From TrEMBL:
InterPro entries: ET-Flavoprotein_bsu_CS, ETF_a/b_N, ETF_b, ETF_beta_N, Rossmann-like_a/b/a_fold. It is found in: Mitochondrion matrix. It comes from Kluyveromyces lactis (strain ATCC 8585 / CBS 2359 / DSM 70799 / NBRC 1267 / NRRL Y-1140 / WM37). Residues 28-220 form the Electron transfer flavoprotein alpha/beta-subunit N-terminal domain. Gene3D superfamilies: HUPs (3.40.50.620). SMART domains: ETF. Heterodimer of an alpha and a beta subunit. Keywords: Electron transport, Mitochondrion, Transport. Coiled coil: none annotated. One of its GO terms (cellular component) is mitochondrial matrix. This is Probable electron transfer flavoprotein subunit beta. Binds 1 FAD per dimer.
Length: 259
């Protein structure tokens, strides 16, 4: 068997998925004050899949390292990842989570190189910005093969290749690639486990490295390439009407110039 898997799992701290987002009074972004934050659901799936790989192939997986970029409070999501089975973690501290995917990808590239990772498993997108770009950009920067929107991940017998099943329109697509590679996870890949209180207590003893984005990652341009002009609620849908016959339906459609 080839060298063991060293898995890197990026996780993002986002407003909890069960909370309905509200636009702030300035219409500049979503309101985040006094709200519950948690691990990004797609990243939670990535953590679960990485831990399952280690449980299923204990001799093939050397380590799972979680990493997050954000404020000091992002330690919470890293502790959750550690409680679920990750071995160690890194917090790249920055006072804002509003960093574009290219910046995050460049940070992750350095972490991959520093940790000598050969498999990166991350959520296909974050539920706050919905960019769905980081995995693809990281694959481009590293010049690694990628398998996006994974709904099934299988480590092959040679220990150096991974088969990934992807859901596509009308069916499934199966791709196989040799390590190192990037995998982004979709919702139907698995159901994440709960972080139990005993495991959360044990997670406090696991390594959590702290770095500073501006100090330890010099040379990365943090200036945004996009400008957010306005954030607003979607328009409220008007109520529908009932018609008593097909003729009346056709008449209404003609009035609306839909036929």
């Amino acid at each position: 068997m080839s060298s063991k898997l060293r898995i890197l799992v990026p996780v993002k701290r986002v407003v909890d998925h069960a909370i309905r987002p509200r636009v702030n009074k300035q219409f500049t972004n979503v309101e985040t004050k006094n709200l519950k934050f948690s691990i990004n659901p797609f990243d939670d799936i990535a953590v679960e899949e990485s831990v399952k790989l280690k449980e299923t192939h204990p001799d093939a997986v050397e380590s799972i390292h979680a990493v997050s970029v954000g404020p000091l409070k992002a330690q919470d999501v890293l502790r959750t990842a550690l409680a679920k089975g990750c071995d160690s973690s890194t917090l790249v501290e920055h006072d804002s989570t509003e960093l574009e995917p290219l910046v995050i990808s460049k940070v992750l590239k350095k972490i991959v190189e520093d940790k000598n990772a050969n498999l990166v498993v991350l959520g296909k997108q974050a539920i706050d910005d919905d960019s769905n770009n980081t995995g693809q950009m990281l694959a481009g920067l590293l010049n690694w093969p990628q398998a996006t929107n994974a709904c099934k991940v299988e480590l092959l017998e040679d220990g150096a290749s991974v088969r990934v099943t992807k859901e596509i329109d009308g069916g499934e697509e199966i791709v196989v690639a040799k390590l190192p590679m990037i995998i982004t996870t979709d919702l139907r890949l698995n159901t994440p486990r709960y972080a139990t209180l005993p495991n959360l207590m044990k997670a406090k003893k696991k390594p959590l490295e702290k770095l500073k984005l501006k100090k330890d990652f010099e040379g990365i341009n943090l200036d945004p390439q996009l400008k957010l002009l306005k954030v607003e609620e979607p328009p409220v849908k008007s109520a529908g009407i009932k018609v008593s016959s097909v003729d009346e339906l056709v008449s209404k459609l003609k009035e609306a110039k839909l036929v």
